[in-house]
Design goal:
Elements lengths: L6 E7 L4 H14 L4 E6 L5 H4 L5 E4 L8 H7 L2 H18 L4 E5 L3 E3 L4 H6 L5 E3 L15 H7 L6 E5 L2 H16 L3 E2 L4 E2 L8 H4 L3 E3 L17 E4 L2 E4 L2 E2 L2 E3 L24 H16 L2 H5 L9 H23 L2 H15 L2
Parallel strand pairs: 1-2, 1-4, 2-3, 6-10
Antiparallel strand pairs: 4-7, 5-14, 6-7, 8-9, 11-12, 12-13
Helix pairs in contact: 3-11, 4-7
Amino acid sequence: MNAARSIAVVTVATRGHFHRARCLLASVRRHLPDATCFAVLADADDDRRLGAQDFSVIPVATLPIPDVAGFVQRYRAPELCFATKPWALAEMFRRGFDRAIYFDADIVVYSSLAPMQQMLDAASILLTPHLAEPPAEGARAAEIDIVQAGAYNAGFLGLARSASADAFLNWWQRKLLHNSRVDVDRGYVGDQRWLDLVPGMFDGVRVVRHPGWNVGRWNLDGRPVTTTNGELRVAGEPLVFFHFSGLLSGAASPGQQLNPEALAPLPPAVQTLMDDYAAELERLGARHYAAMPFAFARSPAAFRADVRYRLRSSARHLLHGVTTTAFRRRARLWFRNRASR
């Protein structure tokens, strides 16, 4: 494979968010022209309705996922996108690329990704933390929020072909085959909290604390976005990529309004980014794509899978609760008190 095809950038999206994938990959082409771009469609394959694209579209059903027919019915739309990521990245290596970068579809790249390429010459796995410094008192995201969500943001991963990257992807695939649930009370946040274990379990992991990487609502207070001489900067460094997760609503039409639940007011430079992003999504067909329903929604198979998960999870937590030392101590005390009456 020639050098121009040595790096792949991939995202995962449903039909309803395909305009976001188009926006992301257009920004990647501007700032990493050597990359070959892919979008994995976590939905029914419908080329006619999606239209011709200048990147390759890979239907999820064509990936080598065990029982893929059951897999796509197992999850809600966001969970399916989360669960598909390790197979999307592994597919890049299967196609012969030396490096693979994953971005969530609601990310936009604003400056060169060449430093990312260079980091992957020395590292096998690149991660970005939600927080790279302690948040100020009263910040939008407190440490407990990040503890619950996971230390690293799963909207970005960079991988270099290596034994460590392969081992990581194989492990992540096993975890997400059945456990890509969003169930915070039981410790599941889709694909994300699994990443907390990665630096401790795999070699060649680099945690990138550059303030311009993966800027999002969770770290805006510590990463002021400004415009200097027409260039977007974060804490004095170039803004590399911004993650719009949680800042846009999911309304079908007009499709891309500021999420009323997002913490406001946004800093002026971020509000400008938001306005420009919403306008670009409209230009790329937000109304058209957002009207497309998720093909696997509300199926009997999905309902049965969800019921099975709830029953297994409840039984597991009940079993854990009644086998702890504290529970046995309380039980002995209760029986002792009953016997002494």
